[in-house]
Structures are given as structure tokens and as C-alpha cells.
């Protein structure tokens, strides 16, 4: 994902940690949702959402238009929970606990989750194949569905479907895989039904245009 930062604390973090030597590859950032960084570094931080995403910045681009800011290309690593805010200046630093772990993606978890992963996979394939497969990003996503562990799919797929901010926060906070699958499958179904309705509407419109053309011919 791409994130634009322009607040004093975020700008200072980028300058002092990401733009120095090889620190870009070794600095893990904590991305906190639903929290607006104050416009002045003299102001205290607002209450922080307790669950966030650890990420690596793989690209940083700066610009002065329309005002100084940096655009970061981020790749997510795992969820974390904030245990304690250590300091606020010159940029926030916190003690955190990792929540997503590799041992979740095991045969044992498949037994506990039952048919939920396979059910999600089938809906995800149905949704992606309703899109334009000639677009490289869509074709890549289709390949990812087959190559990634089923347990990793909810976070990947729900990042591209239409959801409210509240729904995004609920998915982020759903640390348990079972809860995450049960929460995201209805969102997938909703998106599929919405696309079906859109395609049906477009087909009716095309049919109407053909009838008008035939009438004037």
C-alpha cells in the first residue's frame, strides 16, 4: 500500500530513520489506523488504536507540492498490539506484542477452521474472475489466490474490496483466524452480489442502446 505523510512527527521519522544509509531495509514501522497525527509537534498525541500493522517501507519518495510530504510504499508483515507508549517525540516509539505468527498457518489450524478457508477461497476466486483478467494486477491477484496459504487470504482480498472504515478496523482487530474468516466471508459475498447487479445493469443498458440503433436503422 502507499501512504502519504506530512505531519511533523511522521516527517521527522522518515528523515531520521528511513533516509539514512541502509536503515530503509532494517526499520520496521508501526502503522496505526484511525489516528490523526497532530499538525504541530507541540500537541500531545490523541488516543491510539491499540492494534496496528507492522510494515517495511520499500520505497520513499519526497515532494514539495502542494506542500512538503513523503509517499511511502509499504508492505505489511503482521499485526501487533501496543503495550506501552515509550515516547512521543521526536516521533512515537512504543513497546508492542506481535499477534500474527507463522505457527498459525499449520495443519492444526486447518482442522480447527473446518471448511472456512476453502469457502473463502472459492468466493475470492469467483470475485476476482468477475474482474478484467487482462489487467496485470488482477491476473497477479488470481495467481496469489492459488499460491498463498488459505489463512493469509482474508487480509489480502479484503484490502481490495469495498468496505467501510469501521469494517476495516473490525477485520484488523480480529486476531483469531476463525473470527476473521467469519467476518470477511459476508463482505466477499456482498461485493460479488454488487458486481452481479452492476453487470446486469450494464447489460440492460447495452441492450437498450442496440434497440435504439435498430429503430433508427
Automatic annotation (TrEMBL):
Pfam families named among the record's database cross-references: LON_substr_bdg (PF02190)
UniProt-listed InterPro entries: Lon_Prtase, Lon_prtase_N, Lon_prtase_N_sf, PUA-like_sf
SMART domains: LON
SUPFAM superfamilies found in the cross-reference section: PUA domain-like (SSF88697)
PROSITE patterns given in the database record: LON_N
One of the GO biological process terms: protein catabolic process
Protein origin, superkingdom: Eukaryota
Lon N-terminal domain mapped to chain residues: 1-192
MF-aspect GO terms: ATP binding; ATP-dependent peptidase activity; serine-type endopeptidase activity
Listed name of the protein: Lon protease homolog 2, peroxisomal-like
Organism for this UniProt entry: Thamnophis sirtalis
Organism lineage string: Eukaryota, Metazoa, Chordata, Craniata, Vertebrata
